[in-house]
Design brief:
With about 475 residues, the protein is α+β, with helices and mostly antiparallel strands. The chain contains 14 helices and 21 strands.
Length: about 475
């Protein structure tokens, strides 16, 4: 993993490293390179270049970008300098669906300094700061998504669904874990399994999830920057493979009322910077450590601001509710609703799982900017450990069955109920400014405020059905 540096010249790779990566790419048949920087919302952007320009690209003499013209960051004007990207040669991914192409993740610089609205640079800075405090963060993420296709009328429908769109749709076996639906999904899933195994990500399983045509992929954890790059690459990969099967993928958390929410739970742990491989959160011999509980305390102290990043859309909050009518398989959502932690308690925001020593943040979805999400997670956890923040006793109870008075008595806060509540918390959180920087946080808040206001300018079907003839 390349380290965070303060100057453009220090970020440039050696000639030997450039030659080594070039040979690897040419031996694999790569002809085109897409070096990708990450925008404010975690979306990769690029200008493809031929391999003949590889050396220039690696030395920061490839394409330049007027990032501020397209990325919701209005602090720079048309008269300002462009941003320059430096590919990270430790983050090279040959595209399995077309091996003539490779994606290389890059860091943005502006006027010889790290660009202050580069989320990847923000994570690298957080990693450096944590390492200076004595800690290294690791994460695994559980991506969930729904596979769709278009019907004859051009309407999106579930891709893995053998009942007619119109007509009789009787009650069916729940999709989650179902063998028949897993078999029906295998033409698509086999491609994904083979690709992820080939990438060496150590895929553990593929899950048919609760909503029809909803899936989860579980693969091994790694250090934070690599996990962030992997998640962005996975989002690209899923969409490209789905196209080959006449489908498309949505990461929207709640595409319909009756669907289970698509999440992206963050499983986070710490190791000592001077003792690689030792999980500081616990062991089979000793159980959960004080370090783990203090990290939970730090995460809980900044939970609302973290949620503004990990649940970043209006739609995200439609899933953070206890019950929804019309579910396949029941009405309880299994989604987090309150800022507390528990031992294997899936109704809490933070879960201490029974099968591994990590802290699982269940209030996260695939729309998040994963670089900012992991930067906030790492910084909050290290603050908790350093300051020995007490998270209080665990809540090992069904939060869906508890009353508001019980929450008040136990001092348990509710997760933000909407995007604006979370955004307001981000605005007031000093840790968020430390991770994101003043300019990036200001730009993010400005866009999310605009998103909230644009949402309230729309008239939804629900409002028409609820009010049109009632009043």
């Amino acid at each position: 993993m390349t380290a965070y540096v303060e100057n453009f010249a220090d970020a440039l790779p050696s000639e030997a490293r450039v030659a080594e990566v070039r040979k690897r790419l040419e031996d694999a048949g790569v002809k085109y390179v897409l070096s990708c920087w990450i925008d404010l919302f975690g979306i990769p952007k690029t200008k493809p270049v031929p391999m003949s320009d590889f050396e220039l690209l690696c030395m920061g003499k490839g394409p330049q970008f007027a990032v501020h013209s397209i990325s919701y960051v209005p602090e720079l004007s048309p008269a300002d300098s462009d941003q320059v990207m430096v590919p990270d040669l430790d983050a090279v991914y040959i595209c399995p669906w077309d091996t003539s192409m490779a994606i290389i993740f890059a860091d943005l610089f502006w006027e010889d300094k790290p660009y202050n609205v580069c989320p990847r640079q923000a994570l690298k800075r957080a990693v450096r700061d944590a390492e200076q405090a004595g800690y290294v963060g690791y994460a695994g993420i559980e991506p969930e998504f729904i596979a769709l296709r278009y019907d004859e009328q051009g309407q999106p429908v579930k891709a893995i669904d053998n009942d007619p769109v119109e007509g009789v749709r009787p009650r069916r076996q729940a999709f989650g874990y179902d063998v028949e639906y897993s078999i029906d999904s295998m033409p698509f899933l086999k491609d994904m399994i083979d690709i992820l195994e080939g990438l060496g990500w150590n895929l553990h399983d593929v899950v048919a999830e609760g909503a029809y045509s909803q899936f989860e992929l579980d693969f091994h954890y790694t250090h934070l920057l690599e996990m962030a790059d992997r998640l962005v690459f996975l989002r690209i990969l899923l969409k490209e493979v789905a196209k080959k099967h006449g489908m498309f993928i949505t990461f929207m958390p709640k595409p319909t009322v009756g669907d289970w929410r698509s999440g992206a739970h963050i499983n986070f742990s710490l190791q000592a910077a001077d003792q690689s491989g030792k999980n500081l959160f616990g062991s089979e011999e000793d159980g959960w450590s004080d370090t783990a509980h203090h990290a939970v305390g730090g995460l809980m102290a900044h939970a609302e601001a973290i949620t503004a990043i990990t649940c970043p859309t209006v739609n995200s909050y439609n899933g953070l509710v206890p019950r929804v009518g019309g579910f396949e398989g029941g009405t309880v959502t299994w989604a987090p609703t309150n800022i507390t932690y528990g031992h294997n308690n899936r109704s809490a925001q933070f879960r201490l799982p029974q099968s591994r020593y990590c802290i699982e943040n269940r209030a996260a979805d695939m729309c998040m900017n994963v670089y900012l999400a992991l930067g906030m997670t790492l910084t909050a956890a290290v603050e908790g450990v350093t300051n020995k923040i007490d998270p209080g006793p665990p809540t090992d109870r069904d939060l869906y069955a508890m009353s508001d008075s019980e929450f008040e008595e136990l001092g348990i806060r509710r997760l933000p109920r909407n995007l604006m509540m979370a955004t307001d918390a981000l605005r007031d959180d000093a840790l968020a400014e430390r991770v994101m920087g003043l300019v990036m946080r200001k730009s993010y808040i400005a866009y999310k405020t605009d998103e909230w206001e644009r949402y309230h300018q729309a008239v939804t079907d629900w409002e028409v059905q609820e009010y049109l003839r009632l009043y």
